[in-house]
Amino acid sequence: MPGALDLGLPARVPAPVPGDLPSRITIWEVGARDGLQNESAVVPVEVKLEFLDRLADAGLTTLEATSFVHPKWVPQLADAAELLAGLKKREGVRYPVLVPNERGLDRALAAGVEHIAIFGSATETFAGKNLNRTLDEQFAMFEPVVTRARAEGLDVRGYVSMCFGDPWEGPVAADQVVSVGKRLLDMGCSQLSLGDTIGVATTGQVDALLDGFIAAGTSLDALAVHFHDTYGQALANTVAALRRGVSTVDSSAGGLGGCPYAESATGNLATEDLVWALNGLGIETGADLGKLADTSAWMAQRLGRPSPSRVVQALRG
Amino acid sequence: MPGALDLGLPARVPAPVPGDLPSRITIWEVGARDGLQNESAVVPVEVKLEFLDRLADAGLTTLEATSFVHPKWVPQLADAAELLAGLKKREGVRYPVLVPNERGLDRALAAGVEHIAIFGSATETFAGKNLNRTLDEQFAMFEPVVTRARAEGLDVRGYVSMCFGDPWEGPVAADQVVSVGKRLLDMGCSQLSLGDTIGVATTGQVDALLDGFIAAGTSLDALAVHFHDTYGQALANTVAALRRGVSTVDSSAGGLGGCPYAESATGNLATEDLVWALNGLGIETGADLGKLADTSAWMAQRLGRPSPSRVVQALRG
């Protein structure tokens, strides 16, 4: 359709940023890790490297690159060391990696990583299912990882999964998530990523959880949000979080990804759909929407199925 | 996934409705008209009748049933009179129909319709493309329709299309839309449906347009919103409108629909994705999400392709 691409771009809609929204957002791009980790067919390392390079070329500055989880659990990311060795690092771009435990940290340090993330659970049941640990044991496992990483000069992000609903426990109380999050911050994490791992949250829950952290004295700079679009709520929830003052948002190019514990789960919030929303609001991201959509269309071809991103479908479908 | 369906339902999440949101929303279901009108393969009238009956059974109370536009333009809805004659009307359910002009009104009156809608444009260019008229000529065409309909005791809704962006004109100024909307209200329309016909709007534009109407003295009860999900913004935009006090929302079961002027446009906001959001917020709609998803899965089978609704995909995919 003629002209449609331009309609949401700041060049043509120089709207002032509404007062209750941040003027600039950091997009934490998780496509190469969270997006690809559940793909059953292994993507060649050269394709992953090109993917990351194209995402950087599209202006994204935080690219979660891979995970040092044991290859037995996530065969897709068994090439983590090879990928990091082949990475064309760019000035001003961070390439954090997920690290599950001390063995993973050893591998990350050997690969010269500067920024790691750990992946914790907000609920007892998911800690049991995902880590085979209680919540207390989860913290005991993370503590030496975070302490050593910090001593080595690394920055550490703490993912908190199942922040809103859990397939076994149902709705998760905000107090519970705040308690888990505070322990990770106290341990030395510089930022929490509050994850709706199964995509069930709605906007009122987002407000309530962020209010809980604010009441507990957590700085908004220490909070990021991470929504999956399983029930179509990811962007609405993200906008709710932005209105509460959050300024780091996780998303996945082309909406890649899904949760292995939810059979029919669609992927993460699509980076392109997020960028469309932020461009319209006049919020800076540094991202080039056309290059992002090109990259996701290219990756969709490699994966052999269309991108679930509405923007990618509309612009490149 | 066990338990996933229940997570967003009020029975398990009895969240209080946040203070800035309405406690009850009217869903204006457009699936049978806006949803089906662009389907190239004609859906048999019995299937449409079953669709409407199932939507009523799922608790929806406003079902836009069909359109009396000339069959040459929308062959899919050429069966309007037959459909209305076969309708099993339910107590407490409204069945409005679209009426493009006086000839359409004649047919609607002959069919015993009690509630009509007219479809106007916010922009000169789309008035020209869609109606072959200028904006002034558009009002001259609608005036006798609305006047006669009101004299016959009918309620009249006024659609305003291209409220945020137009494929030819680009972004549309809020003042322009307010001016068009006020003329339709002054003419005798009881409600405006503010449409993002090509799905390009973002939340700041929604705020700005509603603020424009509020500043012009329009009652919020006279405003509904109508978003297409072409760029993934429909639900976020709808939630923004709810926060401004709008309490009538257009949506389409299963996300059926699209805009004939946007080749790759996905459909309307999916009713199921909307209901998931409203259930989570504790906002009443009267809708039964399971029955809606069943209905949309059934219709998707008849149309031969999966529903674009994330909720339908997750629950019935």
Automatic annotation (TrEMBL), chains A, B:
Keywords: Lyase, Metal-binding. Pfam families: HMGL-like. SUPFAM superfamilies: Aldolase. The keyword Thylakoid does not apply. PROSITE patterns: PYR_CT. Belongs to the HMG-CoA lyase family. This is Hydroxymethylglutaryl-CoA lyase. It comes from Labedaea rhizosphaerae.
